[in-house]
Amino acid sequence: METSPTELSIVSKLSRKMLAIANNANEGNQKERRGALLHFVDWLHFKPVRVMILSLFFVHICASTYLCTQVNTDFDMENLYLKRSPLTEISRKMQKFVLEESFVVNFALESMPSFEDPAVRERFAMMIHDLENIPLFGMGEKGTTLWTKEYELAISFWGEDDGLWQPEELLKNYKEYGLDRKFITTTYVPLRGSSIAQFLFSG
């Protein structure tokens, strides 16, 4: 069946009218949305509204700052569980008998003490003793990892000999006794050879 030119013209006019109606509807919706947004922006610019928003902002900042000062910073494993959790008591016992709530602190001596001098060795030993026995925090001798203790034990076979503490002899014996090299750094001095320049220990 063939369509006459008159029918095509009518269909074309109807299509244009429908498109025009749809466009008008879209423009109307956009104007309504834009109008509502502009009304909201105008409302925000009212002085009482601005004062209220700023007041709420400052109240929020003050409340947040205050609550931050109330945070319990005494963190331990018990804080990981609910107050009535059965794991709380288990955690408390584990900290007391296993972990003892200790913290490992690493120390570094930038310059090697003159350990060939017995008075220096004695002063250093007293310092370590005081460190190991700090009230509430010290764990005694078992809490310190210090290579000089191992060295003293290793050379005790030879008896007291200050020559074993001479810088060059000290490094030589340190290597021969298989002590851990991670605790020391060495330096080379012409005519004297290598020696320990710095060392680390933890307690």
UniProtKB/TrEMBL annotation:
Q: Quote the InterPro entries the UniProt record gives.
A: Patched_domain-protein (IPR051697)
* An annotated GO cellular component: cytoplasmic vesicle membrane
Task: Name a single GO biological process.
Answer: endocytosis
PANTHER family reported in the protein's UniProt record = PATCHED-RELATED, SSD DOMAIN-CONTAINING PROTEIN
Instruction: Write the protein's name.
Output: SSD domain-containing protein
The organism's taxonomic lineage, starting at the top: Eukaryota, Metazoa, Ecdysozoa, Nematoda, Chromadorea
